[in-house]
Amino acid sequence: QTIAAIVPAAGVGSRMQHNAPKQYIQLAGKTILEHTLAKLSQLSQLRTIVVALSDSDPYFDELPTLDKRIVRASGGKERADSVLNSLLFLAPNPPAWVLVHDAARPLVNISDIERLIDECIRADEGGILASKVKDTIKRGHTHALQTVPRDDLWQALTPQFFKYDELKNALQGALASGATITDEASAIEWAGKPVKLVAGRSDNIKITTPEDLDLAGFLLHKQQN
Ligand code: C5P
Fold this sequence. Notes:
Layout: E1 3-8, E2 26-27, E3 30-31, H1 32-40, E4 46-53, E5 70-74, H2 79-89, E6 97-100, H3 110-123, E7 127-132, E8 137-140, E9 144-148, E10 154-163, H4 164-177, H5 184-190, E11 196-199, H6 210-224
Parallel strand pairs: 1-4, 1-6, 4-5, 7-11
Antiparallel strand pairs: 2-3, 6-10, 7-10, 8-9
């Protein structure tokens, strides 16, 4: 079964208070994007690795090329548009499956990705890495109104792994309908298709705010040594 990876990396990272997009911040000797691509390039089953970037991104071409499978595509306004543009970029020779992974998650564990791919292909349905919510969750604005039962709550991580056609159709439909789509699974749910939850390590954090950087730097150093 052919598999292509898509790495949405066209965000501006406004919550990071940094001038370049957050994936170009250096951590443990490399940019966040290089760490992420180095992880994906360990997966020999990927036919190609499409990185969705803003057209005005001047940094990507300066990165050392780690892998011949890495190609650049144009991102879009929102993350879902970036993923859809990458799917359309693959349309002339589409893979059976796509593995979508945030540029901002360099800590992902390779065995978790392999398990996601194996379990989904075996079950013949798409799925995502996710981790059970550990904290007590409150609903409210200025005051807690309610404690939400957490026994069936999961935190959605990436990669997210779906069949090419199913994801393309779901994203096109969901975007056209104006639904709120913050990950690939939300488009698949919108389309009424199953999303398998595959438990992954909770240290696969998405680097979003400045306080995430120290933790990610520490964990990357630990993984390298
Ligand atoms: O902003 P957030 O942290 O949710 O972004 C998740 C990922 O989606 C990041 O890797 C970011 O670069 C990417 N993204 C994108 N296109 C956008 C917005 C975000 O590829 N328009």
